[in-house]
Each structure stands twice: as structure tokens, then as C-alpha cells.
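User:
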Amino acid sequence: MADNDDIPFNRDFPLQPGVAEEARPGVRRVLCNNPSPFTFTGTVSYIVGQGNVAIIDPGPDDEAHAKALLDAVRGENVTHILVTHTHRDHSPNTARIKAATGAPVYAEGPHRASRPRFESEKHNPESGADRDFKPDVTVRGGDLIEGNGWRLEAVATPGHTANHLAFAWAERKINFVGDHVMGWSTSIVAPPDGSMIDYMASLDRLARREEDLYFSGHGPEIPDGARYVRFLERHRRAREASILHRLSKGEADIPTMVRAIYIGIDPRLTNAAGYSVLAHLEDLVARGIVATDGDPVIGGTYRMAS
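Assistant: Predicted structure:
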């Protein structure tokens, strides 16, 4: 949700759908033709290595994109399929790539929420979850996944989803960060699938690492990644301060806070903005700073705790 002046966003990304581009030696990327307010110009899939390769995030259920990926690795051997998280713009095409290559699928696990759903909560339409996905190999933070000429470390980065992983190529100081960090916009954190508490902790985990070049699930690469992450952290703290400023004037529901905080937002993103505010409110309620009647839910009314 890109309405921020304080983050050095980069929306210069001329890559065309279906074209395999060598972004760095040993790193190719292919853009899927699924542009939207949530995906920017589309989902970016990555090919790591040469000859014996890994594909990261095969993308949405899109036959043309699967063909473009398979064309890009014609004559090569796909040994691993890696998935950062189970949203429908990242994981459904995995089945096509696996069927064509026989490569095993590595991921944290099936889709799950960051916390149990409250009784009063309906299913969150913003989640976009791929509930059919199951990996062949379950991966945890710190696990090493090794191929011919490359070795990736799984980095647990819950927040955008509970099962989000980044894949760090430490020797090359490169990190494939999925949707946790993006150069074109902030990430959506929508409870109960997402968690702001987890998201902030994961940002800090990334910033403390040595990798400084980030490749994201959407948009251009991010140089000086740790510095950029600190901008994101400051932005989220400022968003929290805006919520508290509004609540200091009296109790409010989430649509009221969205109108006060997200000035000039694309109307198509209003619902997602509400869930982002909810993610902050969950954190503030847990810390005893904000109060609500019952569970912190999207339809609740919030006030400063006495």
C-alpha cells in the first residue's frame, strides 16, 4: 500500500512478462503477466544457478508463465522448487513445474493463519491463500538447501504469512525475500493470516544479516537491503503513532482510522489498509496500550486503554 513519502520506493521495473533476464550472474528472473494494485507489474519468479537450477516461486495458476519458466531452463536440470509463501500469486504454479521437471518442492509448510481465528471473524478475503499447496520437503529457518554451485539458507520471516521464508545466498550476499520486503511498496499484513508482531521481528532478523541485495516477489531488486529495512521499520512505527494520535481524540472504528491515516489511497486498497490497521491494533491491544470490547477484530471499535 504505497502512500508513503518516507520510504525510498523504486517503481522503475521495465522487465516484460515471459522474458528471462539475467539479473546477476547465477540469478535469472521471469515476470508473470498478473499486474494488479497488489502485485505491481506481476509476480517475479527466480532461477538460481546454471545447468542444475532451483526455481523460486513458480507463481500463480498461469500456463503461459509456467511455459516461460520451462523455456528459460530448456536443456538444464531443475533440481529444486522453492516457495517463499502460500499466496495464490506465488505457489499454485508449483504443480505445473513439478509435473514437468520432477523436482521436489521445498517450503515451510501448508498455508496456516498466524493465530486461531476468533469466533466472530469471517474468512478474510484479503488473504488470497493457496490452501491446496503441500511441500515435499518441510523447511525450517536455518536449514540449508544445496545445489550445484549454490547454497541457500532458509530464513524464517513470518508476518506477511505465518509460513513465509526468505532464501539467503550468503556467499553472494543475496537474499530472495519474497513479499516480506518489496522495493515498490510496503507489504500487506492482514490478520489472522498475517501478524504485525511477527512481521516486525522478521524485519529485524533480516536487517541483522549480512546479505545486502534483496530480490523480491514483485518489483525491482533492492540494493542496500538492511538500510531499506530500517526505513520500513520506521514507517511502521510512524503508522502506529498515527493510529494512537487518532485514538487520543476519542474511540474509533477501523474505517474511521483508515480515512484519517491513508489520505488519497487507491480505493481498491481500502479494504487491505483496514486489515493493516487491524494488524497494528492487535499488537497495541496485546501490549495493553489500546482497548476494545472482546477480541480485536476488523469490525471492532478501539480506544486508548485507561
